[in-house]
Design brief:
alpha+beta, four-stranded antiparallel sheet
């Protein structure tokens, strides 16, 4: 995708560094002369954003009076991006945030068996989702902000002519979820720079030709301590063990027992508030796939079923709290959390991982 000049609409080669610093969407210009000509109007964006920044209390506490469970604090968030090219097919919630098709399907409970054409659509969505996550992975390093990662995800989706599924889903303001340290899931990308020793989960879903592909990985930022590496390793291993159980005739409720048995042996806990889910033309649908033992999930796996497994593993207690943004789920004790996810297809003989990495291992293992 070629960036266009904000001033004249021609192809752009320059980017405003102040917009980037303030966490604003990227602004591009064709040359310095055009930038200077547009400065009178363009600088108003900076002024408005600086006014927002000045309202933040020391330490980045956006929610005065809220009792945080851990050391992480929210930082300024750039406005939701609306500059998606018109040629990209969008899901039904892209404008008003309401996933009407998903809402209408609730209560039916039937797990769809996908036909050959639908399976091909899911394979493409899974492949593109993996490519986008791999782009995001290259961004992970000390000093980079999650807003910069989100911008890279948005651009990677545009290059592949697909829609970033989280964007405006039930009002979610970003193209991906970035969950740092004690954040379990649904972290909103902001302007906090990544710090040495952080662990970071990036959750990607893309929408292409009417189908969603969903996956996530947890990354090590700089020098992560041994306890953090052990947590990340255990969360990945729990997903791997769960995937080994996927085959025709297996019960969805049995997945959680395999995960919890392993995780308990590692001294960690399994989050119960969030689960894996069916995925196809709908972002979230039947079946529900809990990650803990003795759950009441309904259904038996059949060829053509497509769903995610995405265990969230905590260092301490399994319980969670929610930040006042109504999205960011954090551990109740402020300790760290790690997660991995794949979109899976049940086949006649077992399972296909539609979001697998070509290298066969998650990114965090590349640095071990």
């Amino acid at each position: 995708m070629i960036d266009k000049c904000e001033g004249c609409g021609e192809n752009a080669t320059l980017q405003c560094p102040t917009c980037k610093k303030l966490g604003l969407p990227a602004s591009h210009f064709c040359n310095q002369a055009c930038f200077k000509t547009s400065w009178g109007n363009h600088k108003l964006k900076h002024k408005q954003q600086k006014a927002v920044l000045e309202t933040i209390t020391n330490g980045g506490a956006l929610y005065p009076g809220y009792s945080y469970t851990g050391p992480l604090r929210p930082h300024i968030k750039a406005p939701r991006r609306t500059d998606l090219p018109k040629n990209i097919e969008k899901p039904d919630y892209s404008e008003d945030g309401k996933p009407v098709s998903e809402i209408e399907s609730r209560g039916i409970g039937q797990i769809r068996v996908l036909n050959a054409e639908e399976i091909a659509g899911m394979r493409l969505a899974g492949k593109l989702g993996r490519e986008v996550l791999d782009v995001a992975a290259k961004m992970v390093r000390v000093g980079v902000t999650c807003q910069e990662i989100d911008d890279a995800v948005f651009e990677a989706c545009v290059e592949r002519e697909c829609y970033p599924s989280p964007l405006n889903y039930r009002g979610f303001p970003k193209s991906c979820c970035t969950s740092v340290n004690e954040v379990i899931c649904h972290g909103i990308p902001d302007t906090r720079p990544l710090e040495d020793g952080d662990i970071l989960n990036i959750d990607i879903t893309v929408y292409k030709n009417g189908f969603h592909g969903d996956l996530n990985e947890t990354f090590l930022v700089g020098n992560v301590d041994e306890a953090g590496r052990k947590l990340v390793e255990a969360s990945y291993e729990s997903l791997s063990r769960a995937i080994e159980q996927v085959k025709p005739g297996a019960k969805y409720r049995d997945i959680g027992g395999v995960i919890q048995k392993y995780i308990n042996s590692c001294g960690f806990s399994v989050v119960r508030s969030y689960c894996g889910h069916g995925i196809n033309q709908l972002f979230h649908t039947a079946p529900s796939v809990p990650h803990y033992a003795k759950n009441k999930a309904i259904g038996i796996m059949k060829p053509g079923h497509c769903f995610t497994i995405e265990p969230m593993i905590n260092e301490g207690v399994w319980r969670d709290n929610l930040w006042p943004d109504d999205w960011t789920a954090v551990t109740a004790d402020g300790k760290r959390s790690s997660q991995f996810e794949h979109t899976l297809l049940v086949t006649e003989t077992g399972v296909d991982i539609l979001t697998a990495r070509k290298e066969g291992q998650p990114h965090f293992k590349d640095s071990l």
